[in-house]
Every structure is written in structure tokens, then in C-alpha cells.
Amino acid sequence: MIPHLTQPQKIFIPPPILPGKIRVRIAPSPTGALHLGTARSALFNYLFAKKYQGVFILRIEDTDVERSDPKFEKDIVEGLQWLGLGWDEGVRIGGEYAPYRQSERIYIYTKYLDRLLKEEKAYWCFCTPNELAKERLKQKKAGLAIRYSRKCAVLSSAEIKKHRSEGKSSILRLRIPDKETTFYDLIRGPITFHTNLLGDIAIAKNISTPLYNFAAVIDDYEMAITHILRGEDHIANTPKQIAIAEALEIQSPQFGHFPLILGKDRTKLSKRHGAASVQDLRNLGYLPEAVINFLALLGWNPKDNREIFSLDELIEAFSLEGIQHGGAIWGQEKLDWFNTQFMRHSEKRWLNDRKSLPNELIEYMTSLVKKAVVKEDPTFIRKRCSDIVYLVLERLPLSNLEKDFMSEFGFFFGLPQIKSELLFWKNMNVADIRQALKDIFIILEKIPAEEWEIKIIRKMIFHHAEKTNDRGRILWPLRIALSGQQKSPGPHEIASILGKEETLTRIKKAITVLKENGKNEKPMR
Question: Considering 167, 259, 386, 442, which has the largest number of Cβ atoms within 10 A of its Cβ?
Fold first, then answer.
């Protein structure tokens, strides 16, 4: 619950942004894959830091021992690297304020917790979960704010010693004075909150196990963080973190809160909306440049009408003033559009550097084929998927890949079923179609196997087709013979991938189909 945040009437002017002095961080918890919302927060922090010649830090908040998993830290690190969001300090690379993993900083938190206890700004609370639940229920029925009653705040040192010697379960709470405080949100403007609605918040399970808000405040202070830029779901944490900082008499960073990324039903983006993590998009074969561009425009508006940005252009254009307040709606179709744009720009680079192939997409395509085609050799399937990956990126939205891949590209993995009626083009009859296929068979058969490549195939096919008054008389029946489909890549593209032997086999099969079933067929086009 956000503790009664309001917009104050007084004018509040934020301190200026000083180039070269900015230190920002992204601090994900390794309890799941790198969420797209976290990735966008990382992007905005990265852009802000680079624009003002600042430092971008990656910190891992793994104090939740039960849920934290090294495999998720690995996913976070690899996801940020894939997006091109390199950090200047942090896990894996170190820095002046190391360590950058909270589980390795316990001794630091203990020092500050001890200090608060000695100054009587924190106290031990021995209330059981059942007692606290009853207390909250009573407050709710009375229409009161839900806050801790401070029952344990008045325990004597003797009572505390007795409870602890008995091994009674306890937590540490912070004494929070009742007052009104204002902080300036760099995105939303000045916000006022009332601490009397906070209660004395829990800050640690014990002297060596801090809770999230306490550890975050200490880390931000120790690492000299100047700006905390994060999702609006953290607004409720801001008053608590400010209260902790004030108790320790340390300066809070400046805060700014982005709108959440929402699904079309306007709830927080999750798996049920489709892809929810960076790895999901990697598996589907999206380009990192497309994902970065798309995430940047989810909740941020440039001053002009541009939609396509390089990372350097985003750094130059980015400003906190351009970040909107309302939730940003995830649109898979727009991401597909971005991917198509960047794919066209990147295709030449891919063709020149096979190492740049989108391997995640190839692996995903391979898995789809294996589910549908049982008999084929796995090595052949993967190679064929590698051969057609550019055609897939060009013709099929990646959001439709699982549903449409085999129906659109299945003919690359087995002989298509050819319906003789599809072979007809306009006013051509059976004899015309048969002759067209025989002619193109002879032409393609003459191409030496070692010269079987797309440029030569296209030249031979189109040179022959241009001799007719209508190229469709050659290209259409050849397309159907090779793919069995009315919509497919160009016949020269298909032939170059199938290889000479398979191409000629399919043409012969189409001629046979005409002989068997085509006597009474009439033109369909």
C-alpha cells in the first residue's frame, strides 16, 4: 500500500543534474529470469548515465536466500549483455565499491543495524505472525490504517534479554516519528507522504539478515548512488527508504519512477501475455537492437517523430522529461515491426558473418520441426532451419512462429502434397502447364551442381520467364511444384535451399500429378 501520497501545494525545485557526477544502478533479484520491465529499467538507467557521463552499476539483491538462484543471476547478466547494456561497475567485473552481491555484504548491514539499536532508533519485536494478523484485522474492522501498534517498542531491556534468551522469534523494527515528508520524483514531480500511516517498519529478520528496504538503502549510500530510477511499483518503498536514511542521518538519492509495462488487459506484463522475459524474446529470434528500440519507446516519447534509433541515438535523445506517467501497453505487433526493420538493416551483416546468425531462433525452429516431423534426421533439420532463417524473419511475425511455422515452411522438411488444380495459371491448360514444367526442368538440370546458388538459379529462371508474355506462366507452376503452396518464398529462393536433386525431383512429381489427375482440370486463375 502506498502510504497516503499526495501532491503538495508548495513549489519544490529538484537539484540540478551534474554531468560526470551521476551514479545509477539496476539491482535485480535473482529469483527469476530477466523480466522485460527490469530490462527497460536497466535501459533507462543506462541511457541516463551515458547521457550525463555517469556510471551505470549492476548490483544483485540476493538477500532472499530461499528464492535466489545462481542460474537466474546468470540469466540476468547474459540478458543485459545480449541487449548491449554493459555496466561500468558491478558483479562479474568489480569496482571501487565491491562486493556488488548483497549476500557478500552482510557485515556492512550488521554494522548499521547495530548502530540503530545502540541509538534506540530500532528495537526488537517479538510479536508472532498470528498476533500481528489479529492486530491488522482489528484495525481493518475499525476503519483504521494498517500499521504496527508499537507494542514491543516499550519493552524494557530486561524483557528483551529474557525473550531473546528463550529463543523467541523476533525481527528488528525501525522507530518512525510521525511527520509529513516531501520527496521530489524526477518523473512525477513533488510527492508528500505521512509517516503515521507507515508504522514502525520491519528492517531485518535478525542482526545478520536485513530485509529489502534496509539493504537497498545501505547499498545505495555505500555505493554513492545519486539517482534511483525504477518502476512505479516501488513508489510504496520510497517513504520507507527515506525513513531509514533519515534514521541513519544519511542523504537519500533522488528518485524517479517509470510507468509499468502492461498487457492489453492493463495488468502488469506476465507470462500469460506471451513473452515476459528477455530470454523469451531471444528464444523467439528477436534482434537485440529491435528489443532495445521497442523497450525505449514503451513509456518514453522522443521530442520528434522518429521511431528507429541506434543505442547511441537513444543516448543523445533520452531525457527524463520524455517519460510518461501512465502505464505503457505491450504490443507484440509493434515489436515484430521493429524486428523487421532491424532485420533488413542487419541482413547484409549476417550474410557476411555466419557467427551472427540468430542461433536462438534456429534452435527454436528446430524444436518445432522435431515435434511435427518424426522421421527426419536431427542434423538435417537444424541445417535446413539455419538455411531458411532469413526467409522466416522476412515473412513471418515472430509472435506467430509457434502457430504458423510448419504450415508456412513445412515443405522445406518433406515433399509437399501437390493439388493439381493449384498448378494452373490464368488460361493455361494441362498441356501448357506440363510443358512449362518440362522446360524449366531442362533449364535447371543444365546448371552444374557446384554452381547451384541463388543468383544463378534466379538468372536462369527469369531469363526463361521473360521470353513469355506473362512470367507467371513459368513462376507460378514452379512455385506450386516446389512448395505446394500459393504463398511462399520465390521459387528461386526455395530451389537454392532444396538443392539441385530435390528441386528436380519435385518438378518431376508435379508433372506426374498432372498426368494422373490433370486431364479434366480447368484453369483456377
Answer: 259
